[in-house]
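Q: Predict the bound structure with zinc ion.
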Amino acid sequence: MPERIKVFNTLSMKKEQFVSMSPGQVWMFVCGPTVNDYMHIGHAKTYVFYDVVARYLRHEGYDVQFAMNVTDIDESIVQVARRSRISVESFVRKYMNYYVEDMKKLGIETLGRFERVSKYIEEMVQQVSGLLSKGYAYRVRNEIFFDVSKFPRFGSLSHMSVPELELRPTELSEDKRNLLDFALWRRPPVDGISFSSPWGEGWPGWHIQDTAYTMSIFGPQYDMHGGARELIYPHHEAEIAQAESLSGLRPFVRYWVHCGLLTTEGRKMSKSEGNVVYSRDILRKYGKNAVRLFLLMQHHRDSFEFDEYTLRRVAGEFQLARENLKQLKQYRGRSSNQKRVHAILAGFFEAMNDDFDTPQAVDLLNTIASEASGAPPGSTKAEDYAGALELAGNIFGVDFIG
Ligand SMILES: [Zn+2]
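A: Predicted complex:
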């Protein structure tokens, strides 16, 4: 297994050589959507990036197990479903199907598991019981909290001390012992929907939903956890506390890979801001290839501004490139041996090995496309370029030829 990939790990704040837990295998998990609306372009940015990571790791010879959870236990879902006068179950099914459709339209092909967390309630209850019996959690009436004072590494992912984190308390409750304690099991926040537990009817906390899922499918430790940067604290910090306290093993996850936020006019894209751009609208207008190229033109760790003007330009240029590459349709898969093509491809791989530097790799992909359009049809040169475009295009999920 060539271990030539470097990954920026939020845990160390450094680029580290990527070495998976078991040779040739990669287990990766990305926090999935709360299905209360259609997928927006901010989600699309995150999902396309991890799809490319999985495609690239597969290209490098790894067997990649890529899983994502679907948050179907959330107050917002119940509220919107009730407002729309449909049952929560039909609402969840409907929006989950929209997500599946949009994932497909976006060309997300690597996702092996996309599952509702409500299927894992039993595992959540087991984990909460485990934390209670090990003394990491405490009960106040019918609620259970994680006792952060028992886990001195709390803050290691966000690189903040407990007093710094205390300036950002996330859950308010008079029943907590420490300001940073978080709920593992709570009272039902809405009427009519609850789950059974040894502590009475209630709801699982948000963070236990992820560890119950990943530890059921991957075990106590795995390779890569992704998601948007805003999830580092408290969500991912809490996941580490839960998992490492339960298993006694560390690290829970070897590489934490976070994506920057997507903004519109400097503001986070969200329903409450009223500035949501939906994936399906953008895909309908510009197509999968241009949308993926546009999203990958941005470095995953940077925040970026959604700007339709740039997307329109990318789509126009892509269409022109594809038009110019029509002659390559006859590509018969002959092996590439041209020095120039080799050099560009080497640069492409170098960029991908350097913490998945997709903006750099997109530039090189565009260089291949533009040089390819000048290759005489039917020539070996044209064949070489076509081969390179197919290889790099597959890693990006962008079809230049076709
Ligand atoms: Zn999550």
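A: The longest strand covers residues 63-70.
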